[in-house]
Amino acid sequence: MKTFVIVSLAGVCTAFTGCTTINTVERAEPIAARQMVSDQRVLTDNSLNRSVRILGVNESTGPGDHLKVQIELQNTTRTTKGFSYKFEWFDANGMLLRTPASAFVPRQIEGKESIFITAVSPIATAKDFRLKLIESR
User: Is the pTM higher than 0.70?
Assistant: First the structure.
């Protein structure tokens, strides 16, 4: 009975404080080799940049020679953060391609967690991309 009370109190404290963090484990020496892309960032929301950081951009070719992009994000705070994102796709001439998937997608990231956002260009002529992030309020 005493253990049940302690576990219950711990659960209640965690629920009310919102201090959720994620423990992870991975290979000390990864086998997979990422194709990292140099990126350029335009930061207009300092609050979002302080809490949700871009760690890296990985690029490959998916099925049918469609451009595939993976962005690693990290929550630098101890609390869950909400944000929305969308990818924009560009052709070889730098022209924006109209795609059906051009709406913002809501997402959450737990405290101190790292996540990946992956997208595959819906059009084979896409040769470049832009990721837009906006903080959920």
Answer: yes
